[in-house]
């Protein structure tokens, strides 16, 4: 199994969650989202972000508004819809449950390995 591919798949799985969280803070421009996702090491490129934003909009989870810019063309700022806020809250509950489950398994594995080491006299 390719570790890099596994890491990419894990990041893809939580990308929507992260995007919705970023937008939940208030109106946000796509390049600002891209910058935050990149700095958080959630590898994403414009070619991934824009289709995802379109899909989330078509699903009714977010909307956008155009804002005039003094330095060029108008900018599209994304906002969560009421449906998006509910979805994010439910997604957050699922994330917390999943995180607790994974941590429980990891903790048990750690405990098991330490117990084996003690039994071997290490």
UniProtKB/TrEMBL annotation:
Location of the Transcription regulator PadR N-terminal domain: 19-89
Domain of life according to the entry: Bacteria
InterPro entries: Metal_resp_DNA-bind_regulator, Tscrpt_reg_PadR_N, WH-like_DNA-bd_sf, WH_DNA-bd_sf
Protein name: PadR family transcriptional regulator PadR
Source organism per UniProt: Arcicella rosea
């Amino acid at each position: 199994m390719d570790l890099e591919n596994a890491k990419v798949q894990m990041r893809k799985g939580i990308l929507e969650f992260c995007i919705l969280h970023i937008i939940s803070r208030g109106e946000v421009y796509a390049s600002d989202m891209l910058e935050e996702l990149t700095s958080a090491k959630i590898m994403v490129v414009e070619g991934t972000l824009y289709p995802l934003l379109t899909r989330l909009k078509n699903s009714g989870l977010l909307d956008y508004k155009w804002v005039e810019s003094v330095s060029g063309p108008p900018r599209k700022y994304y906002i969560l819809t009421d449906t998006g806020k509910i979805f994010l809250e439910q997604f957050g509950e699922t994330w917390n449950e999943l995180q607790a489950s994974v941590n429980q398994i990891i903790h048990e594995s750690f405990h098991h390995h330490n117990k084996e080491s003690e039994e071997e006299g290490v």
